[in-house]
Each structure stands twice: as C-alpha cells, then as structure tokens.
Write a structure and sequence with these properties.
By secondary structure, this protein is of the alpha/beta class. It has one domain: Rossmann fold (3-Layer(aba) Sandwich). The chain is built from four helices and nine strands. It has a six-stranded mixed beta sheet. It has a three-stranded antiparallel beta sheet with strand order 1-9-8, covered by helices on one side. The longest helix has 22 residues. It is globular and about 55 Å long. It starts with 6 loop residues before the first strand and ends in a 7-residue tail after the last helix. Bound molecules: 1-O-pyrophosphono-5-O-phosphono-alpha-D-ribofuranose. The site of 1-O-pyrophosphono-5-O-phosphono-alpha-D-ribofuranose has 18 residues, from strand 5 and helix 3.
Length: 195
C-alpha cells in the first residue's frame, strides 16, 4: 500500500485495528451483559465527534448480545494544529435526556484526559446511571487530569499522530491506519486536491 507522503511511520495497521475492535467489542459486550439484566442492557454509545467516527463505526459492529443506541456530541479543544488549546468546548450537545442511561463514551484518543473528564462530569450531572469510556488509543504520558479509560485499544506514544480519525487541520482522518506524522513536512505542506 502506498503511504501518504506526510506519514513518517505507520504505528498501527488497518488489520491490527480491525482485530482490536473485535476484542474490544467482545470485552465491552461481556461487561454489560454481566452487569445488567438482559431487559436493561440497551446502552447509549456516545461518540465524541469528529475523531470517533472510524473507530466507532467498526467498534459497534462487534458488540454482541447488547443493544445499543448511538448519539454524538461535538467537543473540540484543538481547533487545528498539533497542540490542544487546553479548553475542551461542547460545540453540539446531546439531543436526548440521559437520566438513568448507561452511557459508553467512544473516543479515538485520550491525551490530557480533559475532554473525557469534562463530558463524564457533565453526563453524571445530567443524571446518567453510569458512564464508561472506550478509546482506541490511550496516550497516558499526556495525562493532565485523573482519568482512566475503562477499555482502550493501544497505548500511544507521546508524539503527534494522524489517521483513523486523528487529524491535522481536519485532514488525514481518512487514513486507514494510525501513523506518526512527519511534522517537519507538515509545516511547509501545500494542501491540494492532487498531491
Ligand atoms: C481530540 C480527540 C479527543 C481529544 C483528546 O479531539 O478526538 O476528543 O482531542 O484530547 P484530550 O484528552 O487532551 O482532551 P479534538 O479536540 O482534536 O476534536 P476532533 O475529535 O474533532 O478531532
């Protein structure tokens, strides 16, 4: 496969992501099946846009035996570039009440932990019965708040990553793998349709 020119190194291949989504789907399903009686096991999978899309699409297809509804919120703290500005903001809220719901937050990556912490606290305040977190990538070295993912796919190194939902200025989310970006090239890259 031809790599994108802004990719320095593929960290996690499409095949590895697929296998991990299957494992996470099974682990999460087992948890909810054991935790709650069958008639109560409709969970609310809540994706945090926009990065969650590729992971969430695959992950939920591997949930077995549990019913799930899907909803999304738009939360962002990067607004382009390679560094967070540190203040995650809710740009689009949930359209439904969450009182007594069992919510599974679905993320592409946890870095400082601020985004998930804010949303977890927010949902708890709104009356959710439980809030769990599944993320494809866990960048533990970036953590600035006390936050542990309930399930994660891969440990991520403390470098700028792109692909499979992770972006640079809204681009590169579509790569089928997770990769280390070539940050030197990124700085002087001229984006165009026919690179
Ligand atoms: C990214 C990512 C997480 C968050 C993680 O979202 O999707 O939501 O940052 O960072 P944190 O743990 O330091 O809070 P971003 O704000 O870039 O928005 P996006 O999903 O639209 O890419």
């Amino acid at each position: 496969m031809k790599l994108h020119p802004l990719v320095k190194e593929v960290l996690i291949t499409a095949e590895e992501i697929e296998q991990k989504c299957l494992e996470l789907g099974q682990a999460v399903s087992n948890y909810y099946l054991n935790e709650y009686p069958v008639q109560e096991n409709t969970i609310l999978c809540l994706g945090l846009l926009k990065g969650c899309i590729p992971f969430m699409a695959k992950f939920i297809s591997y949930l077995v035996g549990v019913e799930c509804e899907t909803e999304y919120m738009v939360v962002s703290s990067y607004f382009g570039g390679v560094k967070s500005n540190g203040v995650p903001q809710i740009l689009l809220d949930l359209p439904i009440p969450v009182t007594n719901r069992d919510i599974l937050l679905v993320e592409d990556i946890i870095d400082s932990g601020k985004t998930i912490k804010i949303i977890k606290d927010y949902l708890t305040l709104k009356g959710a019965r439980s809030v769990k977190v599944v993320t494809l990538l866990d960048k533990k070295a970036g953590r600035e708040v006390d936050l542990i993912a309930d399930w994660y796919g891969f440990d991520a190194p403390h470098v700028f990553l792109v692909g499979f939902g992770l972006d640079y200025n809204e681009r590169l989310r579509n790569l089928p793998y997770v990769a280390v970006a070539d940050t030197e090239k990124l700085k002087k890259w001229h984006w165009g349709a026919k690179k």
